[in-house]
Design brief:
Number of domains: 2
Structural class: alpha+beta
Helix content: 10-25%
Number of strands: 25
Strand content: 35-45%
Distance between the termini: 12 Å
Radius of gyration: 20 Å
């Protein structure tokens, strides 16, 4: 097998390129700290591997086999032993109209895939986009398009919590207002899922007034959203709410045993709640309680290993709020160590993608051996 990875805590592109180089590279996935954009990792990788498709994203901290990295650049290469064909699309304008950018990328990809019989067990899409746009509108377009019958996994690009510029790239293009998509037709099996360590309580309520285009909820059960939320979590008033309350008391949409987290970003005008993902009117949501993030990660690996007898590579997309939680708990290294026996890379994101736009979630894909 030839899935190779490399990481550097400095923008040493030569070292990274030397370590992921191999015969007949088909695809490269890379993540980098925004402050290292000046090193132009996208151009360096494209020059080194002109025959390969390269997709990348800015991050806030990353993960890899050799250890967690608060700052750095990491990359993973796939050869023709793992990947048969690669298709890419790159669009800009996601801040102004994310749905339009997604529609353009979808049409371009469908033209490239024309004549291919898409088997979701063989095709997988990686999708990265500007973390400051309404990314849920992008992933919704991809998920609902019946012609692209495959999983799309990825993340919303991040910066160092400045929320000023996040970047994504395809080949030699890099943008702070972009959508990057890479579809790989695999020769090897793969397994993917999303993992949430927050679980529902018995407390549920209904969103009765929201503004999805602004990710804002104004009313819950007919009351001012901020006041109602403060009351539910035991805070004296909405004015006393802070980021700690939001991160430790997210809400979620529950479907059977599956939880889709919706995390609160901040107060709006003292009465509304802005989220990291939109919520529609009349949605029933549950208050969530914190679980064991390390045990949750261990279950993720066991689940993948039960499906794939041997794992040759993995890519992780971890929410920045989970990253902050791991820092607070002093469990950053413990989390990385759960995956350290695997050949893997990962990043912390401003939203995780897998069929939908997630918050406070880990989405991950694991690659097995040749069929």
């Amino acid at each position: 097998m030839a899935i190779k990875y490399s990481t550097r805590k400095t923008p040493d592109m030569k070292g990274i390129i030397n370590e992921i180089e191999q015969p007949d590279i088909k695809a490269v996935i890379y993540f980098f700290s925004g402050e290292y954009e000046y090193a132009e990792p996208h151009k360096a990788l494209r020059r080194a591997f002109p025959q390969a498709a390269c997709i990348g994203s800015s991050m806030i901290g990353g993960w890899c086999t050799s250890g967690a990295a608060a700052k750095g650049i990491m990359a993973m290469s796939f050869s023709s032993e793992e990947v048969e064909k690669v298709f890419v699309s790159f669009k800009e304008g996601v801040k102004k109209n994310p749905a339009l950018a997604a529609a353009g990328a979808i049409e371009e990809l469908k033209r490239s895939l024309s004549g291919h019989d898409i088997n979701p067990n063989a095709y997988v899409g990686f999708i990265f986009f500007d973390g400051l746009c309404l990314g849920e509108e992008i992933i919704k377009k991809f998920t609902l398009d019946k012609a692209l019958n495959m999983p799309f996994i990825g993340g919303a690009a991040a910066d160092e919590l400045a929320f000023t510029k996040t970047t994504v790239g395809i080949n030699d293009k890099l943008s702070g207002d972009g959508l990057a998509v890479m579809i790989m037709k695999m020769k090897i099996p793969f397994y993917f899922n999303h993992y949430v360590h927050y679980q529902p309580t018995n407390t549920s309520f209904v969103i009765t007034e929201s503004e999805p285009s602004k990710r804002t909820v104004w009313k819950i059960n007919g009351e001012n959203a901020a006041d109602y939320y403060a009351k539910v979590i035991g805070v004296p008033s909405a004015a006393k709410l802070n980021s700690g309350h939001f991160s430790k008391n997210p809400i979620g949409i529950v479907q059977g045993s599956t939880v889709y987290v919706r995390s609160i970003s901040n107060l709006v005008d003292g009465s509304g709640l802005r989220f990291y993902c939109n919520i529609e009117n009349e949605t029933t949501v549950y208050l969530l309680k914190q679980g064991d993030i390390i045990a949750n990660a261990q279950r993720a690996v066991k689940e993948a290993e039960a499906y794939l007898p041997r794992i040759y590579g993995a890519v992780l997309f971890n929410c920045v709020l989970r990253y902050l939680e791991l820092q607070e708990l002093k469990k950053v290294d413990a989390f990385n160590n759960v995956f350290a026996h695997l050949n893997f890379i990962g990043l912390n994101t401003y939203g995780e993608e897998l069929f939908t736009h997630h918050n406070q979630t880990l989405t991950a894909i694991f690659f097995g051996g040749r069929r």
